[in-house]
Amino acid sequence: MLRFVLARLVQSLVALAILTVVVFVLARATGDPLQLILPMSASEEDYANARQYLGLDRPYVEQYFSFVGKALTGDFGNSLRARRPVIELIRDRLPNSLKLAAFAMTVSLLMAFPLGVLAAVRKGTAIDRAAQVIAVLGQSLPTFWVAIVLIEVVAGRLQWLPAAGNERLASYVLPGFTLGWFVVAGMMRLLRSGMLEVLDSEYVKLARVKGVAEHRVVWLHALKNALIPVVTFAGIYFSILVTTAIVVETVFAWPGLGRLAYEAITSRDFPVIQAVVLTTAAIVALVNLSVDCLYAFIDPRIRYAG
Amino acid sequence: MPAESAVPDALARPFPVLGAAPPLGRGRRLPFLSLTIIGGFVLVALLADVLSPADPEAQSLRARFTPPVWDARGTWAHVLGTDRLGRDLLARVIWGARVSLMAGVLTVLLASAFGAAVGLVAGYYRGRVDAALMRVTDATMSFPVILLALILAVTVGPSFTNVVIAIAVILWARYARVVRGQVLTLMELDFITQARIAGASAWRIITRHLLPNTLNTLVVLITLQIGYVIIVEASLSFLGAGIPPPTPAWGSMIAEGRDFVTSAWWVSFFPGLAILLVVLAFNLLGDWLRDTLDPKLRQL
To answer: Could you read off the pLDDT of A117-162 as tens digits, one per residue?
Structure first.
């Protein structure tokens, strides 16, 4: 088990290292950052001074290693727009994003579980079809459109819930639902097919023969084993949530990483963009790593498969 | 020796391993609804010049915010109404179909071709090649699509080509992963060993024996991902990093109508409805294809 965890850890680190190279190259390939920092009236001499001061005159390899070294200690430089250390911005915004992601994940689980289990138990009936329609609808509606409709109807006309901000728990409902609904379909389908497989198995039949109540058979005996494939896909759901959150946070004015990224990109604030991309990627990698380890722990066959 | 020539030839033979697909007509009805919707939108996209009732970019300040025809203030001149600049919404939705479908199909084709190639090579050679390619795949997968597209849009400028490239550059990784997984299984089977003993070259084994056996899965993934790509493209246009105005794209149309939802709901509503219909149709078709061709495939 320890060997598996270590090997996976090294793999994640290598993937992250590749990503730092990409981010570094993208940042250099997209024009002279000095043109953004220095005023229009800057002279040749000003440029040369600034270049030396920021270390941009050194060889690229050297620049790259100093970039990585600083990033490792949490030093991503200063935001060009906010004129504050980037790490402070990230520290402000990251918890909000994580809270929203956790809330959205809860929403999608709360929807996917009953839908997936019901669809499997009532396979081929109207309930099955209705459950699948609810799930696939969430996947087919653009999140920003759902967001606009919810803001207009639920927050605007009905005045039931707040449309923006994150001060109260009620503010989580609309963005959390918008984000959560989008990934329900995948989870629900995995649960449904998993349940169908398990409900057909010998041990479930045995439980029934023994006289275990049907709801216990379904919700306890069968569901436990139908969960394994859902666990393996948790990492992918999470990375889709992170990506979609950029759009949802922007529409709901949610002060998270996604909106920070959007603001940074529209104002060409490169230090912030680098930091957001690396932070997001590190979190996604960490989640994937934990999911894989959890899976290997649940299912020992994985450990030896390489 | 182009790969295309190898595919139809191989397709003619039965799929020995993963092709447990039952022939059509045995209890599985074709998904007529999805096929009709997709066919309809493809026709609309192809015939946009003929079908469009007006120039999608022609402005008319006098006709601003005309409601749809069933409203008391609506007219037959603008069946779905007009937007903030008096542009005909029906014409814009029709022309938007061309943009969305082209972006979806092109992106997924590019991504799947590249991803499948990487997956085939990684699975065939295994060892270090596999390890190296899979690390790159992992790194790619941890990069949020929308973030990369936004970076490209701001640095290189938003354009149709950049949107397609930005999404494809990330999306291929999923194909590489799935295809590699299948190839690893296939490599253990006797027919590959026999092909090797018979002296088949790596190229031949990959194109004639491995690729045809991954086609089912590829077709399912491609269909399922067209819908996802259309949504991502629309999201980018919505954020202002997709297809730049005044070209009608569904995402940017929704964004333009966003501030007027209370007074002119139709401006954002109809492009949203169009996205919903197309994406829903592709998702349902993809689900159907998966159940038919590759029931074991698990993915979103």
So the answer is: 888 888 888 888 888 888 888 888 988 888 888 888 888 777 787 7
8 Å CB contact between B45 and B98: yes
- Give tens-digit pLDDT for A37-95: 667 677 778 777 777 776 677 777 888 888 888 888 888 877 777 778 889 889 989 99
Say if CB A93 and CB A256 are below 8 A apart.
yes
For residue A30, give how far its alpha carbon lies from the nearest alpha carbon of chain B (Å): 6
pLDDT reported for residue B113: 95
Contact across the interface for B144 and A239, Cβ inside 8 Å: yes
Does A247 contact B238 at a Cβ distance shorter than 8 Å?
A: yes
- The tokens describing B206, both together, are 């990959």
- Got the DSSP string for chain A? -HHHHHHHHHHHHHHHHHHHHHHHHHHHHT--THHHHS-TT--HHHHHHHHHHHTTTS-HHHHHHHHHHHHHTT---B-TTT-SBHHHHHHHHHHHHHHHHHHHHHHHHHHHHHHHHHHHHTTTSHHHHHHHHHHHHHHHS-HHHHHHHHIIIIIIIS--S-SS-SSSTHHHHHHHHHHHHHHHHHHHHHHHHHHHHHHTSHHHHHHHHTT--HHHIIIIIIHHHHHHHHHHHHHHHHHHHHHHHHHHHHHTT--SHHHHHHHHHHTT-HHHHHHHHHHHHHHHHHHHHHHHHHHHHH-THHHHH-
Note whether A175 and A254 are within 8 A (CB).
yes
pTM for the full predicted model: 0.83
- Label residues B40-75 b or e (16+ Cβ within 10 Å = b): ebeebbeebeeebebebeeeeeebebbbbeeeeebe
Q: How many CB pairs below 8 A link A and B?
A: 150
Question: Does the distance separating the beta carbons of B144 and A246 come in below 8 Å?
Answer: yes
Distance, CA of B114 to CA of B169 (rounded, Å): 9
Mean pLDDT, chain B, integer: 81
pLDDT for the residue numbered A301? 64
pLDDT in tens, B119-151: 999 999 988 998 889 888 888 887 778 877 777
Inspect the interface and report whether the beta carbons of A19 and B143 lie closer than 8 Å. Answer: yes
Residue B290 CA to residue B292 CA, distance in Å, equals 5
Nearest to B254 among A148, A156, A273 (CB): A148
Q: Cα A114 to chain center, whole Å?
A: 23
CB-CB: which of A22, A142, A239 is closest to B234?
A: A142
Residue A183 near residue A240, CB atoms below 8 Å: yes
Q: Do B275 and A142 touch (CB under 8 A)?
A: yes
For residue range A248-296, list pLDDT tens digits in order.
Answer: 998 888 888 888 888 887 777 778 888 888 888 888 888 888 888 887 7
Contact B272 A247 (CB under 8 A): no
Structure tokens given for A164: 């923006």
Pick the residue from chain A with its C-alpha nearest to B131.
A11
